[in-house]
């Protein structure tokens, strides 16, 4: 059961991470301000704190590079993405590129679930298509191995 609660804490960390990235886009807050604000929230105590802190710092620092990756996967200019969808794709691209400990299927599934909860009505479908394309590009061997098993 501990593994299940750990995955729940990681899921909650992604939700909080999406909120922080949204706030960064809308209000222009920097990493230090975001960490201060989100660490003060009660929700912070129920997340995978190490994952949240590391991912937020890494995504903020690597956002220009992650956006280049995302821009190569989408069918419109980056500026036309909804801020929630961009946040989800930033998290997904980050995990696919820099967190090989997270299976690509988990990255896609978590992104889709975030899309269902927070994005526009069919935003999760777009997120799914983009993250699937990203996984095929960034985790080619893992994706091929997954298809070979089925």
Q: Per CATH, which architecture? A: Orthogonal Bundle
Low-confidence stretches: none
Shape: globular
User: What's the count of strands?
Assistant: 0
Give the full name of the CATH homologous superfamily: NusB-like
- The CATH topology comes to N-utilizing Substance Protein B Homolog, Chain A
Mean pLDDT: 92
Strand content: under 5%
Tell me the series of helices and strands, N- to C-terminal. HHHHHHH
What would CATH call the class? Mainly Alpha
Number of domain units: 1
The Rg value, from CA coordinates, equals: 15 Å
The main β sheet shows up as: none
Number of helices: 7
Structural class: mainly alpha
| Distance separating the two termini | 28 Å
The assembly state of the depicted protein chains is single chain
Q: What features would you highlight for this structure?
A:
single chain; 7 helices; mainly alpha; 0% strand; 150 residues; N-utilizing Substance Protein B Homolog, Chain A
3D structure, described in words:
There is one protein chain. By secondary structure, the chain is mainly α. It has helices at residues 2-27, 31-39, 49-71, 83-98, 104-118, 123-138, 140-148. The chain has a single domain, classed as NusB-like (N-utilizing Substance Protein B Homolog, Chain A). The mean pLDDT is 92.
Give a topology summary.
Elements: H1 2-27, H2 31-39, H3 49-71, H4 83-98, H5 104-118, H6 123-138, H7 140-148
Helix pairs in contact: 1-2, 1-3, 1-4, 3-4, 4-5, 4-6, 5-6, 6-7
């Amino acid at each position: 059961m501990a593994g299940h609660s750990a995955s729940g804490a990681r899921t909650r960390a992604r939700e909080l991470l999406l909120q922080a990235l949204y706030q960064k886009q809308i209000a222009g807050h920097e990493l230090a301000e975001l960490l201060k604000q989100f660490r003060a929230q009660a929700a912070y105590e129920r997340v995978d704190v190490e994952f949240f802190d590391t991912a937020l710092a890494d995504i903020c620092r690597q956002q220009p590079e992650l956006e280049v990756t995302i821009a190569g996967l989408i069918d419109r200019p980056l500026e036309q993405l909804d801020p929630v969808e961009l946040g989800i794709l930033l998290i997904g691209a980050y995990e696919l590129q820099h967190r090989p400990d997270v299976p690509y299927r988990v990255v896609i599934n978590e992104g889709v679930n975030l899309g269902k909860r927070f994005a526009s009505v069919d935003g999760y479908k777009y997120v799914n298509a983009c993250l699937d394309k990203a996984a095929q590009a960034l985790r080619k061997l893992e994706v091929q191995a997954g298809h070979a098993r089925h």
